[in-house]
Specification:
Layout: H1 5-8, H2 13-22, E1 33-35, E2 44-49, H3 52-55, E3 58-62, H4 64-71, H5 74-77, E4 93-98, E5 102-107, E6 116-120, E7 124-126, H6 135-148, H7 154-158, H8 168-176, E8 178-182, E9 185-190, E10 198-199, E11 205-210, E12 215-220, E13 229-232, H9 241-252, H10 265-285, H11 296-308, H12 315-328, H13 332-350, H14 355-365
Parallel strand pairs: 3-7, 10-13
Antiparallel strand pairs: 1-2, 2-3, 4-5, 5-13, 6-12, 7-9, 8-9, 11-12
Helix pairs in contact: 10-11, 11-12, 12-13, 13-14
This protein binds S-adenosylmethionine.
Length: 390
């Protein structure tokens, strides 16, 4: 079905609702409002489904093609797909006010590595290309979207932080949106539960986006004790403190006050050095040429540095390096050990459908059948002397 600015213009909310209800099997609760201009190749519209996720509702600001692509996802088409999502009764956390950071969540019971903290569907999905519209038109779509959310869901949107104090809807979206992929396209989503989690450069929880259920999952990546704040990262943390702080300031508008950003300069220097070492070791381990100096010991060193740096979610990457390094020397049981660890951690960070997870699952079952098996057999593994004659 195609929507144009002409067939959607100037309808009140009530008129849009009535127009949508007149058409049998129309998937949206309101007739979409659309805008286009000389910069756009197709109109951008607001599509709203109040029945989505058992009545939590959702609105999508995008092209008709993307909205109908989303409709094909099990989240919309399979009534059982969201059975374990949006279960927010008896949560393992309580809200707390943190000086300098605003609201955040603290654990109210012990959470172990791998425990799910919550999984939820977004209130909205917006296409970043909607910025091709003029500002007033883009804002009109966003405002219409919020007005079309079910009455009981709207307070969840209005309770979100508006950090920049500009347009009240746009500001809440910009302060809280996460970038996700849908069918190979970047989209922005807002999830009110995850939006209550503050950033930490050394977080104790990780999240991933599942395209099929259009849901964000959050899990503990280490033990979190009652009273401890639950944190996630908003950025890539494998960078120097100065780069992390600049990124958070530029894209999120705040000065990070996490412990690794507020440490004494000499501790920061050590941490930055470890980040450099991780990068250097990764380059060695990624070298699969006959001249490679990669050994399992180098992967073990990398694991140790990740642990020192408390980059627990990223440990899945280091375990993968170790599994491949052991496999490349034909060491079956160490390959299995580290492949299993990699599956456990990577599932929390990249999701259960991730390519690396599948690869490591295969390695954990039959390392001999993987591409890296015995690849470095016969190559020098240990450096036992300092190179001098004694
Ligand atoms: C997604 S919200 C997180 C919840 C927010 N604290 C609230 O009260 O709704 C993101 C905002 O929280 C604050 N924030 C999150 N992590 C922070 C940190 N490590 N240091 C300082 N402020 C932080 C910033 O104002 C940021 O724009």
């Amino acid at each position: 079905m195609s929507f144009t600015q002409n067939n959607t213009a100037h309808k009140t909310l009530k008129q849009s609702y009535e127009s949508a209800q007149k058409i049998a099997n129309f998937p949206w609760s309101f007739w979409p409002e659309c805008f286009s201009n000389e910069n756009t190749t197709e109109p951008y519209c607001v599509f709203s489904d109040q029945k989505f996720a058992g009545g939590r509702g959702i609105f999508i600001v995008s092209t008709s093609a993307m909205a109908y692509e989303l409709l094909k996802k099990p989240a919309f088409s399979d009534p059982d797909a969201l059975q374990r999502i949006n279960q927010h009764d008896n949560p393992p956390f309580v809200q707390h006010e943190f000086p300098g950071k605003g609201r955040g969540l603290i654990a109210n019971k012990t959470l172990h590595r791998g425990d799910q903290i919550f999984a939820s569907t977004p209130l909205l999905i917006t296409n970043p290309d909607a910025y091709l519209l003029s500002e007033p038109e883009r804002l009109k779509l966003a405002h219409r979207g919020v007005d079309t959310l079910p009455e009981k869901t709207q307070p969840l949107f209005w309770a979100l932080l508006d950090h920049f104090k500009g347009d009240p809807v746009d500001d809440r979206i910009n302060t809280n949106a996460f970038e996700v992929e849908v069918s190979g396209h970047t989209q922005h989503v807002v999830l009110p539960e995850i939006a209550m989690l503050n950033h930490d450069c050394r977080p104790n929880a990780a999240y991933f986006w599942d395209e099929e259920t259009l849901s964000h999952y959050v899990h503990a990546t280490q033990t979190i004790y009652p009273g401890q704040e639950i944190t996630i990262t908003y950025i890539n943390n494998e960078r120097w403190r100065s780069k992390r702080m600049a990124n958070l300031k530029e894209n999120w508008g705040f000065d990070c006050s996490c412990s690794s950003c507020s440490a004494h300069p000499s501790f920061v220097a050590e941490s930055d050095q470890r980040i450099d070492t991780i990068e250097e070791l990764a380059a060695v381990l990624n070298d699969w040429t006959p001249d490679s100096r990669a050994t399992p010991e180098i992967a073990e060193a990398m694991i140790s540095i990740y642990e020192q740096e408390r980059l627990f979610a990223s440990l899945g990457v280091a375990y993968k390096h170790a599994a491949e390094a052991y496999s490349s020397f034909g060491d079956r049981y160490n390959a299995i050990k580290y492949a299993s660890l990699s599956v456990e951690l990577t599932m929390l960070d990249k999701g259960f459908r991730d390519h690396d997870v599948k690869e490591m699952k295969n390695m954990a079952k039959e390392p001999e059948m993987t591409w890296s098996w015995n690849k470095r057999a016969g190559m020098k593994r240990f450096t036992t002397s300092c190179g001098h004659a004694h």
